[in-house]
Amino acid sequence: MSKVSDKLIRVLRDKKTVVTKAFFWKIPHDSGRVDIRLKVGRYKKPDNPFDPEVPESFEPKSELTFDEKEFESLITFLQENYEPFKKGFKAFIPVDRPFTPENAEQVKKLFAVPDRASLIEFIFNKEIIPEDLSLALENVRRKKAINEYEHMLREDLVENNWQKWFEDNTWVLGSEFVRVLDERHIDVQNISDFLMQAYDGFVDVVEIKRPEGRLHFWSPIRDHGNLVPSSDLTKAITQAARYIFEVEREANSIKFLDRVGGVRTVKPRGILIFGRSANWRNDENESYRILNSSYHNLTIMTYDHVLERAKRMVGYDC
């Protein structure tokens, strides 16, 4: 049960034939809760004298009634938007309450402008984003990439998925690499996963194999008690070595130099990412160290080695 109690009426505008009024009233409930209602109406004035406290005695031209929640939202909307809108701002971010979904949309629109170069120059020159915040944003982005990487490790994904991830996150391969080259073709017969530009300006090769599937790192049969690479790993090493050799052969090729954007080729090196090592024993880790030491221009890493490097680079354990 409820009943209408206190009323408050305010004339917002009084014209010759029409009056606009705001009408407050309270509705107390037996539970003790009190609801507040707001009605805003525009009414025709009657020909005869009228009681100004009774807007319902007028003939309504239009009426709108807000419940308490709607009214509170309206107050917030007016408080936040009236003055900025009056000054000509159709989109803005209130400093005292910046972290809302609506404000996020405004920020996205700002950073979605087509002229990215001018946007970056503007942000940098005006020091809009402080250096420490910029570094923090990059660190968060990398942590998100690591979480995605761990999720991918739990799935049996094919090489294409991993190629895309490494292309988007070349930072995990180390600071010696500057960028992924647009060209992957070494020649008509050899197509690498990635041709990279190293920090010294020369071409290097990155080859990846899916971490799971039926590929094994170590052979199940030891040689004189020593762990040796599996046939799968041997094939992958041979393929990576072939790519390195073919890239070096193209060192004086004008066509190849043109396809890789002028990045020079001198004694290319390679990285092979193959298999898992999360559950390796001590002898497997030792054998891996010995295996890597036998190659002067090729580094072999497992997907777990890449993960560990990435975590150390961002300074946290997922």
Commentary on this structure:
The chain is of the alpha+beta class. It has three domains: 7-86, Nuclear Transport Factor 2, Chain: A; 97-128, no CATH class; 143-314, Restriction Endonuclease (3-Layer(aba) Sandwich), CATH 3.40.91. 38% of the residues lie in helices and 19% in strands. The protein is built from nine helices and nine strands. The strands form two sheets. The protein has a five-stranded mixed sheet with strand order 5-6-7-8-9. A four-stranded antiparallel sheet has the order 1-2-3-4. Helix 4 packs antiparallel against helix 9. The longest helix is centred in the middle third of the chain and has 23 residues, at 131-153. The chain is elongated.
Q: Could you say which overall geometry the principal axes of the C-alpha atoms support?
A: elongated
What is the oligomeric state here?
single chain
Straight-line distance between termini: 56 Å
**Average pLDDT over all residues:** 82
CATH architecture of the largest domain: 3-Layer(aba) Sandwich
Q: Give the DSSP E fraction (strand runs of 2 or more residues).
A: 15-25%
Helical content, roughly? 25-40%
Count of folded domains: 3
What is the N-to-C order of secondary-structure elements (H for helix, E for strand)?
Answer: EEEEHHHHHEEEHHEHEH
CATH topology of the largest domain: Restriction Endonuclease
What's the CATH class of the largest domain, please? Alpha Beta
| Total of DSSP H or I helical runs spanning 4+ residues | 9
Secondary-structure class: alpha+beta
Write down the Rg: 35 Å
Number of strands: 9
Q: Can you summarize the main beta sheet?
A: 5 strands, mixed
Low-confidence segments, given as residue ranges, are none
Placed side by side, the strands forming the largest sheet appear as 5-6-7-8-9
